[in-house]
């Protein structure tokens, strides 16, 4: 699954600290494996307790979690849409990802200087959203010019595209992030080739100090209020603490989390939120060689799921035998699930459900 979540933010907000924490977690701990595949790009495992539940009833040689691609995108400065700083690189990288984790500085402790001299989360969010909107506006105007000639000649497709692009232009000029609007399927299809950044789903990450882990400060509240206006979610974590946790041994990490009053690392929550933000869901395969979690898109059918395992399997798909993790917990073995009539046989039109455990029958 090639979809990716980009981590964005102004300079000195903790964006790279967060990315490095994930990287270090993978290097030091089998619980959160992470390996860098190119500069500032990594594949992170998705924490999923259901894997261990399955392993409790099905003994196997190895257990493999689903994974997620995350990209640490160059810091943005005001004027990026005009090429200021690393603006062009920043914008090009955002175009390539499918969702955005927007890190917002909500801490004042320490000696890290804010790029604007003072901490103001709402202003920081608006700076980035404005730059993205300005860059998208330039893209939309360019494409309006492109289709206008054919539209003037009466070409129906061009007329339809022009109307959609002009709606997007009007919204951007009004300061509206395009993801907050309702779009019909055909409108989304027309806009998709433009890779508009304000269309991408966003998760706000409030980076707090260690004395505000619950996110009760006015700064975090400002992030929540802004996110709510656009239907986005917010998670609260301390990037410095995540950095410390990522380098600890599992036993020390558990003690540290307990001392801080935390039940799990914030990275786990970030990864799970990003996973769902991308529209992903999980299915499992389980056998004597391995238990494995696989990524598919929400709404994918059985053949699509089989094709994730091997590209030939999608074409050769005949049927799937499917059950849930809850079925396994209740009946304790696949044989008992089948005897109880809970093993479902699904054909080519079956839409996979979150958490399905599946065996695929594949023909030649």
Keywords, separated by commas or semicolons:
single chain, 364 residues, alpha/beta, three-stranded mixed beta sheet
How would you describe what is shown here?
The chain is of the alpha/beta class. 44% of the residues lie in helices and 21% in strands. It is built from 14 helices and 13 strands. The chain has helices spanning 15-28, 50-57, 87-96, 121-152, 156-173, 185-191, 218-229, 239-246, 250-260, 266-277, 302-309, 311-316, 325-331, 334-339; strands at residues 4-8, 34-38, 41-45, 62-64, 67-72, 99-105, 202-207, 233-237, 280-286, 290-297, 317-324, 344-346, 356-362. Strands 2-3-5-1-6-7-8 form a seven-stranded mixed sheet, with helices on both faces. The chain has a three-stranded mixed sheet with strand order 4-10-9, sandwiched between helices. Strands 12-11-13 form a three-stranded antiparallel sheet. Helix 1 (15-28) packs parallel to helix 8 and helix 4 packs antiparallel against helix 5 (156-173). The radius of gyration is 23 Å and the shape is flat. The chain starts with a strand and ends with a strand. Mean pLDDT is 86; it is low at 25-39.
Topology:
Blueprint: E1 4-8, H1 15-28, E2 34-38, E3 41-45, H2 50-57, E4 62-64, E5 67-72, H3 87-96, E6 99-105, H4 121-152, H5 156-173, H6 185-191, E7 202-207, H7 218-229, E8 233-237, H8 239-246, H9 250-260, H10 266-277, E9 280-286, E10 290-297, H11 302-309, H12 311-316, E11 317-324, H13 325-331, H14 334-339, E12 344-346, E13 356-362
Parallel strand pairs: 1-5, 1-6, 4-10, 6-7, 7-8
Antiparallel strand pairs: 2-3, 3-5, 9-10, 11-12, 11-13
